[in-house]
Request: fold
Amino acid sequence: MIGIIFGPPGSGKGTQAARIETEFRLTHLSTGDILRSEVARGTEIGKEVARVMAAGDLVPDDLIIRIVQRILRDPDGSSDVLIDGFPRTLQQAMALDRMLAEEGHRVDFVIALEVPESALVDRILHRAAVEGRADDTREAIAERMHEYHKLTAAVLDHYRKRGVRVEVVDGVGNVDEVFERIRRAIGISSR
Ligand code: B4P
Reply:
């Protein structure tokens, strides 16, 4: 099973994906976490993307597509995956469709979290105060929102047009309330 958790920056994708991973048989694949780990380890990829990410811009499609392809082809990985933060452009979506089709798979569902922009900014600024992530500054948040509207929002239409099940979930409320809505929407059984 291949699911995608989708939504604007700060909508709770990473938060809910971790919850879904714990309670259901799905492996959480977060492109944001992978890239932050490359930056923290000072790898070649990390050096290439650090400034792009800190500014709130998207890293190049070909780079992130190669990373996801490598992970999805890993035979040790679970075949049930929840992808968080990818695809973020139409080009990434088409690349994901192609790589899954090569293995006889497709995207089974998309969970799209909806949260008003003012609440998104408040959440991210709160995280900035607690964790100090490099891209949680006001300038980078504005750029991340801009990129989301310019490039990422269209990904949802791509999946709708292809007949993939898209479940829009209200992401306002505490983490448990949002998780309960997701659980009802996707209706998969827990461990
Ligand atoms: P991500 O790591 O995906 O960052 P994000 O969109 O902010 O989501 P995140 O998962 O961290 O936050 P969440 O909504 O859970 O990407 C970071 C950067 O990596 C991108 O800007 C880009 O540069 C690069 N990148 C990643 N993937 C890429 C791709 N495919 N292509 C190109 N570039 C890529 O949570 C936000 C905050 O809200 C947290 O503090 C959380 O505690 C809080 N929160 C969550 N749920 C809440 C709730 N219900 N109530 C209150 N607060 C809540």
In short: The domain at 2-186 is CATH 3.40.50.300 (Rossmann fold). Strands lie at 2-6, 27-30, 81-84, 109-114, 165-170. The mean pLDDT is 93.
